[in-house]
Design brief:
about 500 residues; alpha/beta; 15 helices; 17 strands
């Protein structure tokens, strides 16, 4: 099936009246249409509980694009919005699915979409299995074209619940038809990790424990939980960030070169990383992981409340808003190299960075002070996407002694590509329509990552936490610094002028 046929489809979005659809999905579909990456023969059915009409949804779509598309309209907005239809639906009501079935068939004939159907579940995970079951029973997945299911995280809340959910979905969809979306995998610089590693002869020979001392991954947010208290308090940073985003980045950094650039070969190498990752026993958790919860502080000069004062958060909540961890991969390439991760809310800056620290030279001829300047490779995922290589060079001076000064070799993606860089959801939606599963998580990955974090969650649920333990506007609790300092390292700043812990 060629790409033109793949881009002909009916896209059914469950949760079309929600925030994700407004901020990400509708603008992404618009940008794909504007770039002519999807055929004009497409339709979008917005599904929700609200009693909207087609006109109400279309107005909502136009507003969404004007607010979030980040580019001037290049196609007629009214003509584009006419591809959108609304279906009020109760997820438990059989008649609602029968009406949806009729609408899909009508639009299939109208737009000649060849029976291709993409079901996007942008709603609470507890409805995933119910919806999939009704889609099968009411004939919506019985189509002559392809059918695909896109689901957002969290995929379960531990290994057992994820396994149960997967078994429910597999009754309707094959594994290759289930697209578990992780928007981090759609980011430009996350996808660039493989290219940096495997397309540069200067890096690949050094990408091992002989030359790398440690790797640090930081994903910090300056905002708090905002209005997401109900969801977040049941999740926490471990489930919300570590089990998916953070471990996926570790896998891309640590994987072996795939024999071919196919989804199966890339996935196979990532799975090998998860299998080689040292599983922490419950009693070992304090040695490898630190949790935190933000208290009151300052954010951009404004006084902000602590997590327990946020809307819909219990005043005695012990949910973590910060996690730092030390991961070890027990294989030939990475034995002895720690991968340090940290992620949290209400921190000093919104940034996602990967810092690869290379080992010191055996004889430091030019160091004139106790401050050592190791070579660093910095991959910035957000905000200024790019790559920076930190080197040492001769300082321009009249002194007879040769002194060094740090220099940086920079490449900034945003500086060259600007707003034309594809947004993560835009890229992933396009990949889904093309049947490319490279940057979606397979069940084997989900299964292994849950098994890695479950002992940590179990230990924390059993033990007492002294919260809050870090001030809003800082980079987390002091224990996170102690975690890495006991190995002789320090967290590299993710922005200039970053405060050390308070």
């Amino acid at each position: 099936m060629n790409k033109e046929n793949n881009s002909k489809a009916i896209i059914v979005i469950f949760g079309a009246t929600g925030d994700l659809a407004k901020r990400k999905l509708f603008p992404s579909i618009y940008r794909l249409a504007a770039a002519q990456k999807i055929s004009k023969d497409f339709a979008v059915i917005g599904v929700g509980r609200r009693p909207w009409s087609n006109e109400k949804l279309r107005d909502h779509v136009i507003t969404s694009i004007n607010e979030h598309a980040d580019q001037s309209p290049s196609i007629d907005m009214n003509e584009f919005s006419e591809h959108f239809y609304y279906q009020s639906l109760d997820v438990e009501n059989v008649e609602s699915y029968q009406e949806l079935y009729s609408l899909c068939n009508q639009l299939d004939d109208l737009y000649q979409t060849n029976g291709n159907r993409l079901f996007y579940l942008a709603m609470a995970p507890n409805f995933f299995g119910v919806i999939a079951n009704h889609l099968r029973n009411e004939g919506l997945t019985n189509t002559v074209g392809w059918k695909r299911l896109v689901i957002e995280k969290p995929f379960g809340h531990n290994f057992e619940s994820a396994k149960e959910l997967n078994e429910q979905l597999r009754q309707t969809f094959r594994e290759d038809e289930i697209y578990r979306i992780d928007h981090y995998l759609g980011k430009e610089m996350v996808q660039n990790i493989e290219v940096i590693r495997f397309a540069n002869a200067i890096f690949e020979p050094l990408w091992n424990n002989r030359y790398i001392s440690n790797i640090q991954i930081t994903s910090s947010e300056s905002l708090g939980v905002e209005e997401r208290g109900n969801y977040y308090d049941k999740s926490g940073a471990l489930r919300d960030m570590v089990q998916n985003h953070m471990l996926q980045m570790v896998a891309l950094l640590a994987m072996e070169p795939p024999s071919r650039l196919t989804p199966d070969d890339i996935r196979s190498e990532k799975i090998k990383v998860f299998r080689a990752m040292r599983q922490v026993k419950e009693e070992e958790v304090p040695e490898y992981f630190v949790r935190g919860q933000y208290g009151e502080g300052e954010n951009s000069g404004n006084r902000v409340s602590g997590y327990r004062q946020e809307p819909n958060v219990p005043t005695d909540s012990i949910t973590e808003t910060f996690v730092a961890g030390k991961l070890l991969i027990d294989n030939f390439r990475w034995a002895g190299v720690p991968f340090y991760i940290r992620t949290g809310k209400r921190m000093a800056a919104k940034a996602t960075k990967i810092i690869v620290e290379f080992k010191d030279l055996p004889m430091d001829l030019y160091y004139q002070t106790e401050i050592k300047r190791p070579n660093l490779l910095v991959i910035t995922i957000h905000p200024d996407e790019g790559i920076t290589l930190h080197l040492n060079a001769k300082e321009s001076t009249n002194s007879q002694r040769v002194q060094t000064t740090p220099i940086k070799l920079d490449y900034c993606v945003n500086c060259h590509d600007g707003i034309n860089t594809p947004e993560a959801y835009e890229r992933l939606l396009y990949d889904c329509m093309q049947g490319d599963t490279t940057y979606f998580t397979h069940w084997d990955e989900v299964s292994l990552t849950w098994q890695l974090v479950d002992p940590v969650r179990t230990y924390w649920d059993k033990s007492k936490a002294e919260f809050p333990n870090y001030t809003s506007g800082t980079m987390g609790p002091k224990e996170a610094y102690e975690l890495i300092e006991k190995d002789g390292y320090t967290w590299w700043p993710i922005r200039s002028g970053e405060k050390v812990y308070e």
